[in-house]
Every structure is written in C-alpha cells, then in structure tokens.
Specification:
Layout: H1 2-15, H2 24-30, H3 51-77, H4 83-100, H5 102-109, H6 127-136, H7 143-153, H8 159-189, H9 191-195, H10 197-216, H11 219-226, H12 232-240, H13 242-248, E1 286-287, E2 304-310, H14 315-331, E3 336-342, H15 352-361, E4 368-370, H16 375-379, E5 387-391, E6 397-402, H17 407-421, E7 447-448, E8 466-470, E9 481-489, E10 494-496, E11 502-526, E12 532-561, E13 565-572
Parallel strand pairs: 2-3, 3-4
Antiparallel strand pairs: 1-4, 2-5, 5-6, 7-13, 8-9, 9-10, 9-11, 11-12, 11-13
Helix pairs in contact: 1-8, 2-8, 2-10, 3-6, 3-7, 3-8, 4-5, 4-6, 4-10, 7-8
Amino acid sequence: MDTVLIGLLGGLITGISPCILPVLPVIFLTAGAKPALPGERPEVIPAKRARPYWIIAGLVVSFSAVTLLGSLLLSLIGLPQSTIRWAGVAVLLLIGVGMLFPGFEQLLERPFQRLPRRRVGEGGSGFGTGLALGTVFVPCAGPVLAAIVVAGSTGTVGPGTVLLTLAFAIGVAVPLLVFALAGRSVAQRIRGFRKRERAIRITGGIALIALSVGLAFDLPQVLQRLVPDYTAGLQQDLAESDAGRSALNLGGLVTDENRDLAKCGNDAAELRECGTAPALRGLTDWINTPGGKPVDLASLRGRVVLIDFWAYSCINCQRSIPHVVAWDRAYRDAGLTVIGVHSPEYAFEKDPANVAAGAKGFGIEYPVALDNSLATWTAYRNRYWPAHYLIDASGTVRHISFGEGDYATTERMIRELLRDADPNASLPKATEVADRTPKTGSTTPETFLGSSKDRNFGGSGDYAQGTTAFALPATQDRDTFALDGRWTVETQFATPADAAGGVVRLDFHAREVRVVLSGEGTLTAALPDGSTRRIAVSGTPRSYRLIDTPQNTSGALRLSVPRGVQVYSFTFG
C-alpha cells in the first residue's frame, strides 16, 4: 500500500506543479473538439463525452511505457534514444494540422477505415492524442520519478516498480483530467462556444502545432524556469517520510566503497569527513575533454573536485547550473575541477548530441560525462537532480548538497578547501549569481528530531542514531533546532538520556507552533516574548500547542525536557 500511496501522492504533487503548464492548453482545448467526418458540420457536433478520459488514459499508458521500457525497446531495435520523443512530436503536429484542415485529417484516417466500425474519426476518442502527449510529457524530477528512472536504467524493474510507475502516472493524470473535463464542459454547455465549435477546433489545432514547435526548440523549458516550483517542499517532505523512504528505496546500494557517504548530511553547515570518493564508472561519453577522453578521479589528487549530477531537461538543474558554471570559471585556475555527471531522466536525454547541445546552451565548459546506465549515480547513492558532491584534494568527500539552494554555503566550502590545498592560493572574490531557488513557504518547515527524517539540525557534530552529548552552538541558523545535554536519538524521536534532562532550542517563524510528545513528565517552554509554559506530558504521541498568535512570530523557543519524555517533531502554521 505504501508504494501505491507514495506513487499517487508524488504524481498529484507533480500534476499541480509548473511542469504541466505546457500541456494544459492542449488538453483543455482538444478535450472539447471532435474531429469532423465527411459531410458533417463540425460547428454543431459535440465531442464524445468520454473523450477527456481517453486523452488522459492514452497519456498514462504511453508515459508509463516510455518511462519504464522506452530505453530498453530502442536499444533492442537499434534506434536513437530520442526516437520516441520525436515520433510523439510528429504525431502531435499531424493531429494539429488535421484539426485545422478536415480534408487532411480524412487522408490520415484512410488507412484505418477498414477497421470494424467504429471509425477513427467517429467519436474522436482522443486516445491517440493522449499517447502522443505521453511520449513528450516531461514532468519535474521528483523523488518518485527518480526512483522509477533509476530502476528502469539499472534493469531492476519488478512488480513494485511497475506499480509505483502506474500509481505515479495516475496521480499526475488526475489534475490533468480536471482540466480536460473543464474543457469539455465549456465546449458543451456554453451556447456561444457551441456556435463556434469550429473556431475552438482551430484554436486546439493551433495549440497542438505550437506545442510541437515549442518542444522541437525546447521552449517549454523557458516557461518552466520562469515559474517558481511551488511544490518543491512537498516533494522533499514526501521523499523524507518513512513511507517514502521505504517505497522508493532512496539512498542507493550501500557498499564498502560508499558506506561513509552517509556521514555527509544534506546541506551540512560545516565540512565533514565522508570517506574516499567512489570511482566514476559506467560513463559512456565525455564532453569538453581533449579527444573525448575520460577523466580519472584518482588523477585529480591535489585538486578540489566538485561532482554535479544533473540532466539537461531537469528544470531544477537548469536553475542550479549558472552557479556551477560561475564556480568553474572563478576557481578553475585556483585548483577547482568541476565534473558534470549527466544522469538522464528520460530516454532522449541519453543521446550524446542532445547532451552536448544542452551543455553548450548553458555555457558549460567543464568536463561532462554521460551516465546513461546510472552506474556512477548508484555508486554515489545519489537520490536527486541536481546533487553536488564536494571532494577535497586528498580525494575525500567533504560535503553533499541535494536539490536547489544553499549555494553560498557550497561556495564557502569550495574556498575553504582550496585554501587547505594551497595556503598561498590567490582566490577571486566570491561569485554573485542570483539564487533563483523558489520559496517553499512562509513558515518554518516541519522539523523532525528522529534520525530518519532530520534535515535542519543546527548544532555542531553529527546527528545520528545513538546516545550523544550535545551542546548548544553560539549562533544558530534560522529554521533549525539544536540540543543541549546527552540525548538518545532514535529513528522517530529523541529523548534525554540523563536524569538532568536536556534542552531543545528551536529557531522558527510561524503563527502557530506545536510539538509532538509522548512519555511521562512535565517540560518547560521558554517563549520568545519572555513568558514560560509548563506542559504535562502523558501517554502516546500527540500534538501540544506551544504558540498561537494572530500573525507570524520569529524567534527562539527553548524547551527543557525531562528524562522520560520523547520529542518527535515540531509543526508550524
């Protein structure tokens, strides 16, 4: 059940993201436009009631098949990886032209007129349109899609992966179906539209042609980059939930070579020691190297290395790449080597010519390797597009950053490692690339104290399962928590290990703050306004309100927690 639920939720989140914007006009318009038959007057013929469902069904079927099996099928018959995508673009273009010129559409239908009657034109089911849309539909790269793509590329497709893919596709389809039904409703119920159905049909044809031309020149990506990804926070929460970790098997295959990478928490504020960097493996083509020769990671000892996992159609990557390009140009002569590991989400991204064109378009001059089998991705236990792995001059991984944002921290660490490698190095001033990472909300994100979900620990040292002595830092970043005293950290909660109890300090901004607690005991909360609250805790985990104000409040909250009380999480409203 977790697999189905996670797939559906991931699809629903993607289905309301900016990534669906390019296909919305097409779905809205074509759902209410029926192909005309010889001798019929299209101005007065409504589309079949089932047409929106057939369009979305076609999209679900083709998207699922292309995502899981497209690469395998193309390799078996020896066709380029972009064949399916270009075939879909061509079909959409032909359908669009047919909507403009009924005579041309009849010519296209002629080969199918021997089929048992139901004629292709009759009813205009739209299933073919949906099939074509599914081959070109490129949603944002979220954790569910990442798990599906990794399974497909590494040959580990099983019943669970198929179930996850179908659930994801259905989840994406639900919001799209709403738009399709809205398009049909407008066409059928509004009298003015019924009188102008021919005009609607022409508009739908133009929309299909525009989408086809736009896809050929990657214009939809420009639109997607301009609109903030307001679903990024939801995707991250989904991936870091217990059900998400279980269903998606995030984190990759653990081996002796990459085991220590777990010591590098995502976006840690300070450099850490996370083991020797795994070797680059399974890379098929190299771009921006002399003669296309591969780069040997071991040969770069003495230089600081930044490995950037990316894909050229990934919208999140496209907002991140300007920072990586700027770091390469600023620090290459000072001892930094950037390596782009292109890890494709889709079959068409495996084409070396497509990747080379994408790299050139982004101004990438550093070496880029094609990881079409996701072998290096798996070796690094990667889980997101984009992802940055920072390696020091001795070959040790010192920092990992998943997703967008926190570029200033990564650059600060680059500079620190360059000085460590050469104390006499002359470094340029820090780069000044605007951070286009979309804001994910106006309040502090949900904060977990369990080791399986922590992502915003603001204290010093590692935050991992076990009993550890913590100390509050002198300064603490916004939207983080820190501990004081000896605490036992479990996967779901943290609890004081000594009779003296422990302290949790939380920096937050929100109107309402609640904490999930269990056990037996009374804790004291020191609030930002100087007041205090005592909370009697008893029984199984439940939520306790700490702050409830008419408007957002910012500040530090300090909880004195007795032994015997378990702290699970903080939530904000």
